[in-house]
Amino acid sequence: MTTSIIISISLLLLLAYIFDISSSKTKVPSVILLLIVGWAVKQTVNALKITIPDLTSILPILGTVGLILIVLEGSLELELNKSKLPFIGKTTLVAIIPMLVFSFALAYAFHYFGGVSIKDGLANAIPFAVISSAIAIPSAQNLNSNDKEFITYESSLSDIFGVIFFNFITLNDDIGTETVGYFILELLIILILTFVATLGLAFLLSKITHHVKFIPIILSLVLIYAITKVYHLPGLIFILLFGIFLGNLDELKNNKFIHKLKPKLLNKEVHKFKELTIEIAFLIRALFFLLFGFLINTQELLNTKTIVWAVAICFGIFTLRYLSLKVFKLNIKPGLFIAPRGLITILLFLSVPLTQATELANNSLIIQVIILSALVMMFGLMATKSTVGNDLEA
Questions:
Q1: Burial 278-304, CB ≥16 within 10 A → b, else e
Q2: For residues 229 and 238, what is the distance between their CA atoms, to the nearest angstrom?
Q3: Which residues contact 292 (CB under 8 A, 6 or more apart)?
Q4: Tens of pLDDT along 307-334?
Q5: Taking a C-beta distance cutoff of 8 angstroms, is the pair 150, 372 a contact?
Q6: How large is the angle between the packed helices 118-129 and 343-351, nearest 10 degrees?
Q7: For 389, left (φ over 0), alpha (ψ -120 to 50), or beta?
């Protein structure tokens, strides 16, 4: 039995690797194929009457670790300098404004049709408003550098601000001046923690001589993120800033403290660290979507009661996205199509308190929105000609 499980998991992960390297040519997002494979495995297991323990509790764990590694992977690739500040500011607005507008619009719909309060409606709407960097970043790997950078920044920031907004809404019964004050204090605390922890981890990375040095750093990142989550602090900000710091040591090499870290030597270590992060992120992401596909109930997937809501939500997502890209004068293609919902959507949905849940936002709706948004991305990328060498519009 143990040998069979090992063989099965190994074959599935090798298949995930084939999907990943072939997606640039087929334009089919690997996440769709992984979900299909996971679902097919479930049907095979049921047909053969093989008993499998309940794996539902593993999904949030894989998702959380995957989210940390994917944001870290994306942030390590981001170039940060003064010339990039206007672009970063514009990208931040594109990540935040549509998310807020869509969240409040869908919250009102849940309030009107589901009879929940606007606040509870927001708790259920925010998961649908956040772009999944777990799907968006890998899907942007074959775009030109500017489009790829935009997708990486936007999806990572969407994850971060989405989690912050979600926690703010779900963890506070009453929202007022005092609540906002505590929220601002939490942001200041995480920024101080980020500064101290980033310098400490960078110092360790430059000083550790043991042949195992990167796994302890990754485990430390996961540990710090988990601790910040216990105290309801926005830990993804720490992950993003840590990655940006390591990925931009060249911009800081004149700093006295950074000079002590021997930036030239540290850069080599960062390159190795980045490669390991990419490999582990791929592994966790593949396992997550295979497991999610395995846990999909066919009746939930084909639920006709929620399909109208799913289509309406996706229509709203891409309409609002088109308008925001147009207003901020960014490339409509291929950026319009890369707004998938996925890992972060599932994690936030599973985190909605039972007292704030609504029947309208259920498993069927989540699954259908994820698949529809991934299909839009797939057909959009197929229809978009290669844009390598083109820049973002001014």
A1: bebbbbbbbbbbbbbbbbbeeebeebe
A2: 12
A3: 35, 38, 59, 346
A4: 999 999 999 999 999 999 999 888 888 8
A5: no
A6: 160
A7: left
CATH class of 2-383: mainly alpha
- Cβ–Cβ < 8 Å for 277, 137: no
- Degrees to nearest 5, angle at CA 229 with 226 and 234: 115
Q: What is the pLDDT of residues 347-377, one digit of tens each?
A: 889 888 888 888 899 889 999 999 999 899 9
Under 8 Å between Cβ of 131 and 345: no
pTM of the full predicted structure? Answer: 0.83
* N residues, the chain: 394
* Whole-number Å distance between alpha carbons of 145 and 153: 12
Radius of gyration of the chain from Cα atoms?
A: 21
**Vertex 27 angle, CA 21 and 29, to 5°:** 70
Q: How far is residue 182's CA from residue 54's CA, in Å, rounded to a whole number?
A: 39
Q: How many whole angstroms separate alpha carbon 274 and alpha carbon 104?
A: 37
Q: How many helices (H) and strands (E) does the chain have?
A: 16, 0
φ/ψ of 131, rounded to 5, equals -75, 140
Q: How many CB atoms lie within 10 A of CB 140?
A: 23
Cα-based angle 279, 333, 278 (whole degrees, multiple of 5) = 5
C-alpha to C-alpha distance for 224 and 222, rounded to whole angstroms:
6
Residue spans of the domains in the chain: they are: 2-383
CA distance 344 to 66: 10
